Amino acid sequence: MIINKIKLVGFRNYANLAISLSKKINIFVGDNAQGKTNILEAIVILALTKSHRIGVSPNIIMFDKNKCSLSCLVKRDKILTKLDITITENSKKLFVNKNEIRRVADYISFLNVIVFTPDDLEIVKGSPAIRRNLLNIELSQISKTYLKVYNEYNKLLKTRNEYLKVLFNNNIADTNYLDIITDKLIEKATYIYQKRKEYIDLVNIHINDYYKSISSDDLIKVIYNPNINIDNYDNESIRKKLKHTFKKNYLKELNYGMTIYGPHRDDFYFEYKGNDLKIYGSQGQQKLAIISFKLAEIPIFKNFCDTEPVLLLDDIFSDLDIKKRNRLLKIISSDNLQSIITTTDLRSINKKYLEDAAIFNVNNGRVERK
Known about the structure:
By secondary structure, this protein is of the alpha/beta class. Helices cover 44% and strands 23% of the residues. The protein folds into two domains: 1-112 and 308-370, 3-Layer(aba) Sandwich (Rossmann fold), CATH 3.40.50; 119-306, Glutathione S-transferase Yfyf (Class Pi), Chain A, domain 2 (Up-down Bundle), CATH 1.20.1050. The chain is built from eleven helices and 15 strands. Helix 5 packs across helix 8 (250-256), helix 6 packs across helix 10 (283-305) and helix 6 (176-215) packs across helix 11 (322-334).
C-alpha cells in the first residue's frame, strides 16, 4: 500500500498543496512550526477520519476559510483508490472514489497507517486511556469486526451505567434488565479481551528484535494488564470470570453508578529487563520501546491486511544518537513499505539511506522537492 499523491486545500497552513510521493522513503525537512507535522496529520485524518494530535487546536480549517478538503490517491495491489474528506465547522463528509461513505466503520481500512509522534512518549508515561486508544486504533484498522464489536460494547456500557444509576436512585430491587444487559456486555467484552491479548502477543514476537537492532540491547516486552485477573483467554473462562466479578461487585458498582470492570478499564505496560519501563527506564529507552512497538506492528498489518501499511514518523530523530538514527533508517529502507518522515535536519544521516529518498523542504506552508 502506498500513497501516490496528496492534496490539501484550506487545511492548517496549506491554502493549496499538491505533492507526489515516492513509494519508499519521503523526508520532509524544515524548522519547527513550518507545517511538516500538518502533512502527517492530514494523512492520519485521511486514514482514520480524525487527528492523532494531542493538545493541538482542533480548528484544522485555515483562518478565513469555511471548509477544508483533504484527498489522496492510494495504490494497493495495482488498484488505485481515491479518498476524499471535506470538513466544515459542523460536518465531515467521507468519499471513496467519489462515492460518499456514511459510516466511519465502512471507510476505515482503505488506508492503513502506523504513526509515531513525540507525543507517543505518553504511551509509556500517560494514563491507561492513551494505551487503550492505541490498541483500539490499530485493531480497528486490521479488523472491521473489532471496530463493530467495540462500538457495540460502548453502547451497552453506556446503557448499563445509566441503569445502575436508575437502580440506585429509585431503590429498585428488580435486576432482571441489568442481568440481560450484563450478559450482552460480557459477550462483547470477551471478544475484546481476546483480540487485545492476541494483538499484544503478536507485538511481542517482533518488538525485542527491533529494539535490539536499533539499540544493541534487548529484553523488552509488552505486558497486557486487564483490570480483572484472566488466567485463560478462551471464551468460557473469560465469561465465567466476568460473570463472577459482576455478581460479586454488584453493590460496589451500584454505589459508584458505573461499570468498574471490563475492557474499558484495560491497560498494558512495557517491561524492560523485568522492570516497568515507566518507572525504571530513561526517556531514550522509553522512546526506543515505543518506536520498536510501532515497527513490530508492521508484520501484523501485513499478515491481517495482506499489504504493507504506510509508516508515518514525526520528528523521529530527536533524542536518538547518530548510530541509532542510521540503524532505524536501515530498518525502514530494507523493508518494502512507504515511509513518511519529518525532521529538522539531515546532517547526521548516512547518505546511502538518502539516495533513493524523496526529500522535501518545508518553509511556512510551502513545500518544494529537492
